[in-house]
């Protein structure tokens, strides 16, 4: 029986397994399954593949979107450029990597984009952030990375001033901060400088209204959580997995 799955760690509140299980039921897709593979190390992927010969595709989540690159036999052009993968097809033992985060993010992000949303702050520097960077480049939106530690081409949270907030009307959270059950956490920003002209996008979807988004909403900002992005990328994964 064909099997699909998700690799990541931890996977206590995974979106994918629930989504695909319900999709299979609602659409009458039979003799297929979706399983979570919570692996403490990317090296455990070898065992997942060995012990599940019926695997046809994998979704990839935190923290393996970059690390899984070493296990791929082929990649599409976007993955080559981004350096991160969240979707894998398995055919005749060959692993091919794709990035559907870019599809999900772009389609959900542009719905609320307004003409004055001209520059962005990207919070976090992981695999998901690389997909966001790809889309912002495509849309010709300049951006600045923000991280806890000083790195090349980044600024730290402690260095963010009122002027920086004012000049970057888009703020995208690519960190897991605020994810259930740690719902009181949020990126350490000077939220008092937000206005109704800001657009806050959070890749976190559980809870639907994170503290990050709540801080923006209280000041009139446009807000969007990551649920629609997940649905769109999951459907893109399904299309790729089932392409002839």
From TrEMBL:
Residues 6-88 form the Shikimate dehydrogenase substrate binding N-terminal domain. Pathway: Metabolic intermediate biosynthesis; chorismate biosynthesis; chorismate from D-erythrose 4-phosphate and phosphoenolpyruvate: step 4/7. InterPro entries: Aminoacid_DH-like_N_sf (IPR046346), NAD(P)-bd_dom_sf (IPR036291), Shikimate_DH-bd_N (IPR013708), Shikimate_DH_fam (IPR022893). This is Shikimate dehydrogenase. Keywords: Amino-acid biosynthesis, Aromatic amino acid biosynthesis, Oxidoreductase. It comes from Danxiaibacter flavus. Pfam families: Shikimate_dh_N.
């Amino acid at each position: 029986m064909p099997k699909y799955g998700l690799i990541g760690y931890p996977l206590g509140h995974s979106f994918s397994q629930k989504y695909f299980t319900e999709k299979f039921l609602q659409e009458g897709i039979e003799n297929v399954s979706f399983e979570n593979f919570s692996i403490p190390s990317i090296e455990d992927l070898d065992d997942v593949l060995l012990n599940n010969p019926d695997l046809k595709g994998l979704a990839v989540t935190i923290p393996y979107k970059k690390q899984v690159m070493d296990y791929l036999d082929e990649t599409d052009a976007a993955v080559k450029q981004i350096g991160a993968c969240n979707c894998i097809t398995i055919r005749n033992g060959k692993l091919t990597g794709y990035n559907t985060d870019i599809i999900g993010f772009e389609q959900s992000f542009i719905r609320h984009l307004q003409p004055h949303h001209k520059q962005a702050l990207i919070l976090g520097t992981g695999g998901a952030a690389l997909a966001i960077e790809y889309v912002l480049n495509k849309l010709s939106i300049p951006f600045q990375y923000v991280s806890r530690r000083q790195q090349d081409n980044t600024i730290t949270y402690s260095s963010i001033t009122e002027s920086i907030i004012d000049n970057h009307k888009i703020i995208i959270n690519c960190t897991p901060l605020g994810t259930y059950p740690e719902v009181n956490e949020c990126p350490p920003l000077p939220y008092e400088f937000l206005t109704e002209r800001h657009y806050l996008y959070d890749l976190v979807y559980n809870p639907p209204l994170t503290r990050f988004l709540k801080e923006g909403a209280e000041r009139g900002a446009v807000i969007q959580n990551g649920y629609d992005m997940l649905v769109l990328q999951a459907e893109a994964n399904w299309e790729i997995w089932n392409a002839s």
